[in-house]
């Protein structure tokens, strides 16, 4: 790839990042760093949703190379190559619309990367300035933003491998999980900045039950992580319509399933590890496990919500988790009954991201309340 192409892409990514950075700069917030963190949370949520749209519209290979499009900075410049590929295979993965969807997704990801770099630079600057002056520097410890930067680099690598390995299911699924992980890490940092600016009052909060709630909240996060993997595995293997009825599948509670091929991780899209076409029973197994594990998610997160409701500072987040959990169940069933409409499928992915965000906030606040000194 030419250096001019890389320079053009870098300039475009900077332009994408300039709008949120300008919003932070002109805002009247007392803590602009906190504003930057929460804008990054918002845009990362949007990126996950748009990533789902990219995947569900089969646009992941809209530009079949990385980081550019046919070695160029955008589909405008690669117009001839895209049109030639589209003429050769009109229903294939490369079209002008799909190329733009894919490149918009990449540029949004690059923009978020720049925001995280800015976050890291500000934290190091303020931390060093506070250390040199002897003033307090709480809330600007640079270790966490630096870890975020390394994490987003790893996420970018998986984004590249998603394209170069031609949508290999395990790579695409890991790309999704890392995106959710980035959202959780940013939300945790946002909670830390909220606490630094406006400490959450722990006075009057009952102490009994908090350690148990913390453990339950962590367990809920692990259960949700498993379900995110299963959901990503369904999506990346195109197994959403392997079962077209609910609660039965193929007219049975337990249909014929091939777990060995369905859950063999390292293989090409639509193929077994031996290179044969993936049997339908393998897709059924993938779908059926995700569907039934959803019941575990509802039970564990529902119990967590019920326990969190006892604590006034956690009640609002608990209510949010309960609402999103119900909507997730509804959109999941609607996806099956309505024959996989794009809008509902994207909303189902958005609901998963919302659960990650809310559960992270619940974990942070439960940790703070449990660690706060007991009132005398």
Automatic annotation (TrEMBL):
In terms of InterPro entries, this protein maps to: COX15/CtaA_fam, COX15/CtaA_HemeA_synthase
Q: Per the record, a Pfam family?
A: COX15-CtaA
Please state the protein's primary subcellular location.
membrane
Its membrane topology? Multi-pass membrane protein
Spell out where the chain crosses the membrane.
6-24, 36-56, 104-125, 146-164, 170-191, 212-230, 288-309, 321-340, 346-364
Keyword Plastid part of the UniProt annotation: no
Q: Where in the cell is it found?
A: Membrane
Q: Which UniProt keywords apply?
A: Cell membrane, Disulfide bond, Heme biosynthesis, Iron, Membrane, Metal-binding, Oxidoreductase, Transmembrane, Transmembrane helix
- What is the protein's name according to its record? Cytochrome c oxidase subunit I
Tell me which species this is from. Answer: Pseudoduganella buxea
């Amino acid at each position: 790839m030419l250096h001019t192409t890389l320079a053009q892409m870098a300039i475009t990514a900077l332009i994408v990042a300039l709008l949120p950075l300008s919003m932070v700069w002109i805002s009247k917030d007392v803590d602009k760093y906190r504003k930057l963190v929460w804008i990054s949370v918002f845009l990362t949520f949007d990126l996950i949703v748009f990533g789902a749209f990219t995947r569900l519209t089969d646009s992941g290979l809209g530009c079949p190379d990385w980081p550019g499009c046919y070695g160029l900075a955008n589909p405008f410049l690669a117009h001839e190559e895209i049109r030639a590929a589209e003429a050769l295979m009109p229903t294939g993965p490369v079209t002008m619309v799909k190329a733009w969807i894919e490149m918009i997704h990449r540029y949004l990801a690059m923009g978020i990367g720049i925001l995280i770099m800015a976050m890291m630079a500000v934290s190091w600057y303020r931390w060093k300035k506070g250390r040199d002056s002897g003033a307090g520097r709480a809330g600007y410890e640079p270790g966490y933003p630096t870890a975020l930067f390394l994490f987003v680099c790893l996420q970018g690598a998986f984004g590249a491998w998603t394209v170069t390995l031609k949508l290999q299911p395990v790579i695409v699924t890991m790309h999704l999980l890392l995106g959710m992980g980035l959202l959780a890490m940013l939300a945790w940092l946002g909670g830390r900045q909220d606490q630094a600016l406006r400490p959450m009052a722990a006075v009057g909060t009952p102490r009994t039950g908090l350690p148990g709630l913390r453990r339950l909240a962590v367990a809920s996060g692990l259960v949700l992580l498993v379900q995110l993997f299963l959901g990503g595995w369904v999506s990346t293997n195109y197994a959403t319509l392997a079962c077209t009825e609910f609660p039965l599948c193929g007219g049975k509670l337990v249909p014929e399933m091939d777990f060995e091929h369905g859950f063999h991780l390292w293989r090409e899209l639509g193929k077994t590890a031996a290179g044969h076409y993936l049997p339908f029973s393998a897709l059924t197994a993938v779908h059926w496990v995700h569907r039934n594990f959803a019941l575990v998610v509802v039970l564990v997160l529902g119990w967590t919500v019920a326990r969190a409701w006892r604590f006034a500072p956690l009640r609002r987040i608990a209510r949010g988790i309960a609402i999103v959990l119900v909507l997730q169940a509804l959109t999941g069933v609607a996806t099956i009954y309505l024959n996989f409409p794009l809008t509902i499928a994207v909303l189902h992915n958005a609901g998963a991201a919302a659960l990650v965000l809310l559960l992270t906030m619940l974990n942070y606040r439960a940790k703070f309340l449990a660690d706060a000194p007991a009132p005398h």
